[in-house]
Amino acid sequence: MLDAVKGLGQGLGTVAATAGLLSVLCIVVGLVIVGLVSELKTLGYVILGIGIVLLATALVVSRRNVAGTIAARQGRYSTNVIVMTVAFVGLIGVLNFVAFDNPFRWD
């Protein structure tokens, strides 16, 4: 009985890893389709949604591993880097929007 439970846990770990990899692939493909092919935006959004659902599934199935990784020192530093990168890209996006909306010539 205990071996069956351990085997199930290992199987779920494999499912989580596979779902995680497929989610990243779906998210990237969905973003590329939405950004580059205007005729297939609906398909791109569907693929993007599938990727988000797969990512959520992988996080729920392996929540102990995710929580342990985030709580560790390297996880805290990685989270900090991700937050700073998102803030930087957001700031550049806002500046680009303002500059595009208000053209100004320097000469």
Describe the structure.
This protein is mostly helical and 107 residues long. 88% of the residues lie in helices and 0% in strands. The chain contains four helices and no strands. α1 runs antiparallel to α2. The protein starts with a helix and ends in a 6-residue tail after the last helix. The mean pLDDT is 81.
SSE order and pairing:
Blueprint: H1 2-36, H2 41-61, H3 63-71, H4 73-101
Helix pairs in contact: 1-2, 3-4
What is the helix tally? 4
Mean pLDDT: 81
Silhouette: flat
List segments where confidence is low: pLDDT < 50 over at least 5 consecutive residues. none
Sketch the topology as an H/E string, one letter per element: HHHH
Tell me the helix content: over 70%
Look at the helices and sheets and give the structural class: mainly alpha
- Largest β-sheet summary: none
Query: Rg from C-alpha positions?
Result: 20 Å
β content, as a range?
under 5%
- How many strands appear in the DSSP assignment? 0
Distance between the termini: 79 Å
Overview features:
single chain, 107 residues, mainly alpha, 4 helices, 88% helix
Quick structural overview:
The protein is an all-alpha fold and 107 residues long.
